[in-house]
Amino acid sequence: MLHPNLEHLEISATPLDHSTHIAKTLLPKLSAACRSLESIHIGPDAINSSPPVQAQIMSEILDANPTVKDVSVMNAGFRGTDILFRWLGQRPGLEALELDLDPGTQLLPFIQDPGLPANSFSSLLRLHVMCYPEIALALPALLPNVEKLSFDLARMPDHAPVESDIAFLDKLLYTLTRCQRLKSVKANIGLLSASFPSSETLPILHGASLVAFASACPNLTDLALLVSKPAAINASCISSTDFLQFCRLMPRLMQLDLELHPQTTIALEECALNLLGEHCPQLEVLRLKVALQLPSLTTIEDEPKLAYGSEALGAASTQMEPTIYEYGVVYIGAEEAAVRTSSPTAPLFARLNHLALARPQTVLSVAASTYATSISSQSSSITDPWLEEELVRSWAHSLLVHFPRLDILEAWGDWTGQENDSMNYFLPLEEPLASIWEFLSGVEQDLWDDGQPHTTEGPESWDDDFEQGVSVRSSGDWDRASLVNEYPGSAGSGYLETCDEEPEDMITPVDDRNHWFTKAEDAQTTLPVKPDDQNMHALSDRVGDVTLH
Asked: What is the distance between the alpha carbons of residues 282 and 300, in angstroms, rounded to a whole number?
């Protein structure tokens, strides 16, 4: 396994008791046996922190291997990583570094030292650090050529609140304008104090800082701004004009991940998707925690034809068995309905494969009446089946037209901002109506149904198992064991009924059990079948309480 030409060494394992032996004996021997190493990665908790191992050992190993240009010791159990960071700053040829710095701000004097050599970290292209926010704000001054920058930001849990933390994201983006070669920026804000960030105190992001950062870094392809749960980013100071300027400045953007609080993004709900689709054509991953409305997507080629009131309803009812490709996108208001038909257009998100958005408030959603509603929300008390049908169709239409390569549709919380869990819907284009209904309703995706009708006939029937003497130890019988002798199928019924309990002194009859496994053909019934989502009538069976006309 080990040989002199080995270029990459990675150690990732469960923490071992003899951490000192590993760090002082094993690692030096491994590096000495591989004289052509280009990267050394030590995985999280690969070295037990008790007794602590000083990071100085890593500098000795790297000294003996001058060819190493990629170092990763993130959460590896070393102590004194600040010293290692300072030493690595003078290492020529270092291109990539992942490191968790010591808790605190003791590294600031080194970073801000005016006498620091100008060539410190001059070759560094990729940096991922875990540090205090004060360190993150000072680091960009040392990174003139960095292309990929990732911050995991946190303080000790008992740290006193810092008032300026609320504007940290703005300050970080302004600071990063120095790094004009940036292609990727990721910032994940953890706990900076016991009470920040939280569901009540959110870090704020202004549109001006977002635009200034985009203007200074035109080569950016990946931007992620995240906050630990249950908090999110306050985006109330980002206007539609700010977002338009940001999108225009980001033509190379491929991944955008913004964990905004949905209740602060009302200004972006109607315009964000259209602006991103028009100005960021290379997007592949879009995770925007905003209650976006897919039916609001438009293109320049669209020439909507509007009909109001009874005319719109009449136009919709004249089509018999319409398919999703034939049916216009329908928008329902409180007192009017508009049917829009459009000619075939190019998709706005031709490359997108992952779309995440906050589940919006619709007629399919359920929420407490105390939650604030957005400008595009509809009352959850409306249960008109026709509205539900049109809602699902309009969303599915936009999904098919504008997201031809979508593999994952993700519900990233909901419009209230109270729900923070994510729910993924895989391959939504294969069953668009079903996937949209599940997404808007907030139910999990059905991944087990293969789409084929299931009946009680065939080799899987209980009667066949009984007559063939299937063993109670067999795997096939195990799956149905809980039903046998408790929920027998009665003759003439395709459903299961509960048996009356036996008296304690009654001997369970053995010879009469054959009638419990009545053949399905005698009952002339079949089990429920998942509908074909290409047919809207089948969708009504799936929805349950929706009746189609």
From this structure: 19
Query: Which distant-in-sequence residues (6+ apart) come within 8 Å of 105 by Cβ?
Result: 132, 134, 135
Sign of the C-alpha dihedral, residues 453, 455, 459, 461?
A: positive
DSSP calls for 124-137 = --EEEEEE-HHHHH
pLDDT at 363: 83
Q: Are 296 and 266 in contact (CB under 8 A)?
A: no
CB contact at 8 A, 400 and 346:
no
Residue 235 CA to residue 246 CA, distance in Å, equals 14
Name all contacts of 422-430 with Cβ < 8 Å and 24+ positions apart. 422/356, 428/399, 429/399, 429/400, 429/403, 429/404
Is residue 244 within 8 Å of residue 350, measured between CB atoms?
Answer: no
Distance, in Å, from the CA atom of 383 to the CA atom of 284, rounded to the nearest integer, reads 36
Q: Is 229 left (phi over 0), alpha (psi -120 to 50) or beta?
A: beta
Q: What does pLDDT average to over the chain?
A: 75
Asked if residues 521 and 457 have their Cβ atoms less than 8 Å apart, the reply is yes
- Alpha-helical (H) ranges within 239-384 are 240-248, 272-279, 310-317
pTM, full prediction: 0.72
CB 210 within 8 A of CB 173: yes
Identity of the residue numbered 515: H
Amino acid at residue number 377: S
Q: How many CB atoms are closer than 10 A to CB 169?
A: 22
pLDDT tens string 313-348: 343 333 333 333 333 333 333 333 333 334 457 899
Contact (Cβ atoms closer than 8 angstroms) between residue 442 and residue 422: no
Q: How far apart are CA 462 and CA 293, in angstroms?
A: 48
Compute the C-alpha angle 162/166/168, nearest 5°: 95
Three-class SS of 424-464: EEECCCCCHHHHHHHHHHCCCCCCCCCCCCCCCCCCCCHHH
3-class DSSP assignment, residue 522 = helix
- Quick: pLDDT tens for 112-141: 988 888 788 999 999 999 999 999 999 999
Domain ranges of the chain: 1-102, 310-450+533-543, 454-528
For residue 15, with 0-12 CB atoms within 10 Å meaning exposed, 13-18 middle and 19 or more buried, which class applies?
middle
Q: Which residues pair with 222 in a beta bridge?
A: 184, 255
Residues sharing a CB contact under 8 Å with residue 2, sequence separation 6 or more, in sequence order: 30, 33, 34
